[in-house]
Amino acid sequence: MTTVITFGTFDLLHIGHINILRRAKEHGDKLIVGVSSDDLNFSKKSKHPVYNQDCRMAIISSIRFVDGVFLEESLALKRKYIIDHKADILVMGSDWEGKFDDLGDICKVIYLPRTENVSTTEIKQYIKEH
Q1: Residue closest to 51 by CA, chosen among 63, 40, 38, 39
Q2: For 8-32, how does the pLDDT look when each residue is reduced to its tens digit (9 = 90+)?
Q3: What sign does the CA torsion over 4, 102, 72, 126 have?
Q4: For residues 4 and 66, what is the distance between their CA atoms, to the nearest angstrom?
Protein backbone atom coordinates (compact mmCIF):
# COMPACT_ATOMS: atom_id res chain seq x y z
CA MET A 1 0.00 0.00 0.00
CA THR A 2 1.35 3.43 -0.99
CA THR A 3 0.64 6.31 1.38
CA VAL A 4 0.59 9.88 0.08
CA ILE A 5 0.76 12.91 2.34
CA THR A 6 0.03 16.54 1.57
CA PHE A 7 -0.41 19.73 3.56
CA GLY A 8 -2.34 22.96 3.32
CA THR A 9 -4.54 25.54 4.98
CA PHE A 10 -7.58 24.68 2.83
CA ASP A 11 -9.44 27.84 3.76
CA LEU A 12 -12.48 28.71 1.62
CA LEU A 13 -12.48 25.37 -0.15
CA HIS A 14 -12.42 25.72 -3.94
CA ILE A 15 -11.84 23.66 -7.09
CA GLY A 16 -8.07 24.10 -6.82
CA HIS A 17 -8.12 22.34 -3.45
CA ILE A 18 -10.29 19.54 -4.80
CA ASN A 19 -8.02 19.11 -7.83
CA ILE A 20 -4.83 18.82 -5.81
CA LEU A 21 -6.39 16.35 -3.37
CA ARG A 22 -7.79 14.22 -6.22
CA ARG A 23 -4.48 14.29 -8.10
CA ALA A 24 -2.50 13.53 -4.92
CA LYS A 25 -4.67 10.47 -4.27
CA GLU A 26 -3.94 9.24 -7.81
CA HIS A 27 -0.31 8.71 -6.70
CA GLY A 28 -1.17 6.14 -4.03
CA ASP A 29 -3.69 4.03 -2.18
CA LYS A 30 -4.10 6.22 0.89
CA LEU A 31 -4.12 10.02 1.19
CA ILE A 32 -3.30 11.70 4.50
CA VAL A 33 -3.74 15.49 4.77
CA GLY A 34 -2.06 17.80 7.25
CA VAL A 35 -4.29 20.83 7.79
CA SER A 36 -2.36 23.89 8.98
CA SER A 37 -3.33 25.00 12.47
CA ASP A 38 -4.73 28.47 12.98
CA ASP A 39 -1.48 29.53 14.67
CA LEU A 40 0.68 28.10 11.88
CA ASN A 41 -1.44 29.83 9.26
CA PHE A 42 -1.08 33.14 11.10
CA SER A 43 2.70 32.70 11.34
CA LYS A 44 2.92 31.99 7.57
CA LYS A 45 0.49 34.61 6.28
CA SER A 46 0.02 37.13 9.14
CA LYS A 47 -3.72 36.57 8.97
CA HIS A 48 -6.24 34.15 10.34
CA PRO A 49 -8.17 31.77 8.10
CA VAL A 50 -11.89 32.37 7.60
CA TYR A 51 -12.72 28.95 9.06
CA ASN A 52 -11.01 27.70 12.21
CA GLN A 53 -8.85 24.59 12.18
CA ASP A 54 -11.58 22.29 13.50
CA CYS A 55 -13.96 23.34 10.72
CA ARG A 56 -11.27 23.02 8.05
CA MET A 57 -10.30 19.56 9.31
CA ALA A 58 -13.95 18.45 9.25
CA ILE A 59 -14.39 19.78 5.71
CA ILE A 60 -11.22 18.09 4.40
CA SER A 61 -11.99 14.79 6.15
CA SER A 62 -15.38 14.66 4.39
CA ILE A 63 -13.80 14.64 0.92
CA ARG A 64 -13.90 11.18 -0.63
CA PHE A 65 -10.26 11.27 -1.78
CA VAL A 66 -9.04 11.83 1.79
CA ASP A 67 -8.36 8.86 4.07
CA GLY A 68 -7.06 10.72 7.11
CA VAL A 69 -6.52 14.22 8.48
CA PHE A 70 -4.26 15.60 11.18
CA LEU A 71 -3.32 19.04 12.48
CA GLU A 72 -0.06 20.46 11.10
CA GLU A 73 1.36 22.69 13.81
CA SER A 74 4.80 23.52 12.39
CA LEU A 75 6.48 23.65 8.98
CA ALA A 76 9.64 22.46 10.72
CA LEU A 77 7.92 19.16 11.60
CA LYS A 78 7.23 18.02 7.99
CA ARG A 79 9.87 15.27 8.27
CA LYS A 80 8.33 14.01 11.53
CA TYR A 81 4.81 14.04 10.07
CA ILE A 82 5.98 12.05 7.04
CA ILE A 83 7.70 9.48 9.23
CA ASP A 84 4.84 9.28 11.76
CA HIS A 85 2.28 8.68 8.99
CA LYS A 86 4.59 6.28 7.12
CA ALA A 87 4.17 8.29 3.93
CA ASP A 88 5.85 7.05 0.78
CA ILE A 89 5.12 10.19 -1.25
CA LEU A 90 4.86 13.88 -0.37
CA VAL A 91 2.69 15.87 -2.78
CA MET A 92 2.74 19.67 -2.72
CA GLY A 93 1.54 22.41 -5.04
CA SER A 94 4.00 23.83 -7.53
CA ASP A 95 4.12 27.10 -5.58
CA TRP A 96 6.32 25.14 -3.13
CA GLU A 97 8.60 23.79 -5.91
CA GLY A 98 12.03 22.89 -4.55
CA LYS A 99 11.26 23.77 -0.93
CA PHE A 100 10.89 20.17 0.20
CA ASP A 101 13.48 18.44 -1.96
CA ASP A 102 15.52 17.70 1.19
CA LEU A 103 12.78 15.24 2.21
CA GLY A 104 13.61 13.08 -0.81
CA ASP A 105 15.78 10.92 1.45
CA ILE A 106 12.68 9.58 3.26
CA CYS A 107 9.98 9.74 0.56
CA LYS A 108 9.35 10.64 -3.05
CA VAL A 109 8.55 14.35 -3.45
CA ILE A 110 6.11 15.44 -6.16
CA TYR A 111 5.06 19.01 -6.97
CA LEU A 112 1.76 19.31 -8.83
CA PRO A 113 0.76 22.33 -10.92
CA ARG A 114 -1.81 24.60 -9.33
CA THR A 115 -5.23 24.99 -10.89
CA GLU A 116 -5.06 28.09 -13.06
CA ASN A 117 -7.17 31.18 -12.37
CA VAL A 118 -8.27 30.23 -8.86
CA SER A 119 -6.84 31.14 -5.47
CA THR A 120 -8.18 31.69 -1.98
CA THR A 121 -6.64 35.18 -1.94
CA GLU A 122 -8.47 36.14 -5.14
CA ILE A 123 -11.76 34.73 -3.82
CA LYS A 124 -11.41 36.75 -0.60
CA GLN A 125 -10.64 39.88 -2.63
CA TYR A 126 -13.67 39.30 -4.86
CA ILE A 127 -15.91 38.90 -1.80
CA LYS A 128 -14.57 42.15 -0.29
CA GLU A 129 -15.22 44.07 -3.51
CA HIS A 130 -18.70 42.69 -4.15
Answers
A1: 38
A2: 999 888 889 999 999 999 999 999 9
A3: negative
A4: 10
